[in-house]
Design goal:
The chain is α/β, with parallel strands linked by helices and 316 residues long. It is built from ten helices and 14 strands. The protein has a six-stranded mixed beta sheet with strand order 6-7-8-3-9-10, sandwiched between helices. A four-stranded antiparallel beta sheet has the order 2-1-4-5, with helices on one face. It has a four-stranded antiparallel beta sheet with strand order 12-13-11-14, with helices on one face.
Length: 316
C-alpha cells in the first residue's frame, strides 16, 4: 500500500487521542482514544449509540471533532482537513454503496476515478480487483444481479481499489452466508499482508474475537477498555470460567448470580471450577431442578462486553 508512503508493519498508522464531538445536547464522542498499526486488525465495539459511527466518520474526515486529535501517520487531520492524510483512509460502509445498474467493471472504474486513478494505473487496479474478488467472470454483468456475498465483495473492492493504508470496515460481512464470510476474511487478510491497517466496527463479537488482534470498546462516547481478548477477560472478569447448566425446568427462583440465558439454560461465572460448580449444582438440586447437561468454558469477548456495557437494551 502506498497512499501515504508509510505502511511498514508495526508503524502507527492511526492515533485517536481524546476525541470529542457534541451534536446539540448529545455528546457523541466524549474522549474516545485508540491506536492502530499497519497490518493490524482492531475491533471497535460498543452498544448502539456508543459513538462508533461518529468516530469512524471523524477518522474518515467526514465529521470534525470539537476537540482532541486524530492523526494518520503522525499528520493531524484536524483542525484543518489534511488532504494527503485523508487519502490514506477509506471507509467501507455497511450499506451497499455502488451503482446497481452498472457492471462490476464499470463500478470499479468509476470509484477508481473518484479516488484519483486513471490511465494504465486504473486499468491495472480494476483487473486486480476483479481477480481479488473472484468477479472477473462476471465483470460485465449488472451488479444488481449479484448475490449478497458478491455485492459485499464488490462493495469492499470499490473502497480499497486506490490502495488506502487504513480501511474502516462497518459490518463487512452483514447478511452473508458462512462461505462468503470466509472468503471476505481471506480477502481482508491479503490486505493486511500488504500492510493495510483495518478498523472493524461490528456487533458480531465472535467474529471480532477471531479476526482482531486487539479490541477497543467504547460507550457513551469514550473508550472504556482496550487490549487483546485475553487481556480484557483478565482485566474485567479475572480468572473465571463460565458454567452453563441445562435443566429440564427452570426453578421459579434462582440463587444470586445465576441467569437464564436461553431456553432452560442457566449460566454463571465461577472462580474455582471444582468447588463452585459443585455448590451451584447442589443449590439447583435443593430447588428441585433436574440437571440435563453441564458445560464449563473460559470467558469470551461477549462476556466482557456485557460486563462492561450492561445487558439493558440500547435502541438509540
Amino acid at each position: 500500500m502506498n497512499a501515504s508512503g508509510a505502511s511498514a508493519p508495526g508503524a502507527v498508522a492511526l492515533r485517536v487521542d481524546a476525541a470529542c464531538k457534541q451534536f446539540g445536547e448529545t455528546a457523541a464522542l466524549a474522549g474516545a482514544s485508540l491506536e492502530l498499526e499497519s497490518g493490524e486488525c482492531v475491533g471497535l465495539l460498543g452498544p448502539n449509540g456508543a459513538g462508533k459511527s461518529t468516530l469512524a466518520r471523524a477518522i474518515a474526515g467526514r465529521v470534525r471533532p470539537d476537540s482532541g486529535d486524530i492523526a494518520v501517520f503522525g499528520r493531524s487531520l484536524w483542525p484543518r482537513r489534511a488532504p494527503e492524510a485523508l487519502k490514506a483512509v477509506s471507509l467501507v460502509p455497511q450499506e451497499i454503496a455502488f451503482y446497481g445498474a452498472l457492471s462490476a467493471a464499470e463500478n470499479l472504474q468509476c470509484f477508481g476515478r473518484l479516488n484519483g486513478l486513471h490511465g494504465a494505473r486504473l486499468t491495472e487496479q480494476v483487473r486486480w480487483a476483479l481477480q481479488w474478488t473472484g468477479l472477473d467472470s462476471r465483470a460485465d454483468e449488472p451488479a444488481t444481479n449479484f448475490s449478497g456475498g458478491m455485492k459485499r465483495r464488490l462493495n469492499l473492492a470499490c473502497g480499497v481499489l486506490h490502495e488506502p493504508n487504513i480501511v474502516i470496515l462497518d459490518e463487512p460481512t452483514e447478511g452473508v452466508d458462512p462461505q462468503s464470510r470466509a472468503h471476505l476474511w481471506e480477502m481482508l487478510q491479503g490486505l493486511r499482508e500488504r500492510g493495510t491497517a483495518l478498523l472493524l466496527t461490528t456487533h458480531q463479537l465472535d467474529e471480532a474475537e477471531q479476526q482482531c488482534g486487539r479490541i477497543v470498546i467504547i460507550d457513551s462516547g469514550r473508550t472504556i477498555a482496550s487490549g487483546t481478548t485475553a487481556e480484557l477477560v483478565e482485566q474485567t472478569l479475572g480468572a473465571t470460567r463460565r458454567l452453563s447448566i441445562r435443566v429440564r425446568t427452570v426453578p421459579e427462583s434462582l440463587p444470586e448470580g445465576i441467569a437464564v440465558t436461553s431456553a432452560n439454560v442457566l449460566e454463571t461465572n465461577v472462580a474455582d471450577p471444582a468447588a463452585d460448580a459443585a455448590s451451584v449444582l447442589q443449590s439447583l438440586h435443593r430447588l428441585g431442578a433436574t440437571v440435563e447437561d453441564v458445560r464449563l468454558s473460559g470467558a469470551t469477548l461477549n462476556d466482557v462486553f456485557l460486563e462492561l456495557t450492561g445487558r439493558a437494551l440500547r435502541d438509540a
